[in-house]
Amino acid sequence: DRRIKIAPSILSADFADFGREIRAIEDQGADWVHVDVMDGHFVPNLTFGPPAVKAFRKHVKTFMDVHLMIAPVDPFIEAYAEAGADLITAHVEAGPHIHRTLQAIRATGKKAGVALNPGTPAEAIEHVLDLADLVCVMTVNPGFGGQKFIDMTGKVRKLRQMIGDRPVHIEIDGGVDPVTAPLLVAAGADVLVAGSAVFRGGSVANPEAYGDNIRAI
Ligand code: DX5
Ligand code: ZN
């Protein structure tokens, strides 16, 4: 369905209170929970291993969208599937075999996503669209929340055209806020990741701010 889904990224949440933060954003209307896995190699930051994702799983009632910013990615697919991911996204830039990587994700029974950094053309994934349930278009260079949006509307339009009537989500990730979101939805995106734009001004003590922020996007 083309209803727009909002997937708050817990990279912007309170790292001392993930359980309550996850429950708060879901109570306040999050459609998915976006989990940013970073290895300090593919991106210059380090976040969540499989044990952490397993702990998050206990609190996620909606849908756990796990974004693997790691290379190599194949050795960890099984572990994040076991940890309870509902969808696992790998970067096309993480290695030479994205076709095999997507096959490996699908073999775990999970949904499969492929992510494109801002410098990577849409054509890079043209030959794996039949293996993808989602294409994640990075609108920042990955590694951190709160970065400045990089306009990728042209790439989103091209992807929507390439996808045609296949059931493939286009997810936008990075710098999404009430100003940038409408541009991307108009271009064909249907899942919007937002970290700082959801968590800013709120807390587990003031979760209503999360709901206001989600509705504003
Ligand atoms: C960046 C991550 C994004 C990030 C989004 O590498 O993949 O999901 O957390 O945060 P904002 O919405 O603040 O740009
Ligand atoms: Zn992400």
From TrEMBL:
InterPro entries: Aldolase_TIM, Ribul_P_3_epim, Ribul_P_3_epim-like, RibuloseP-bd_barrel. It catalyses: D-ribulose 5-phosphate = D-xylulose 5-phosphate. Pathway: Carbohydrate degradation. It comes from Paracoccus aminophilus JCM 7686. The active site is at 36 (proton acceptor), 173 (proton donor). The keyword Isomerase applies. The keyword Lipoprotein does not apply. This is Ribulose-phosphate 3-epimerase. Binds 1 divalent metal cation per subunit.
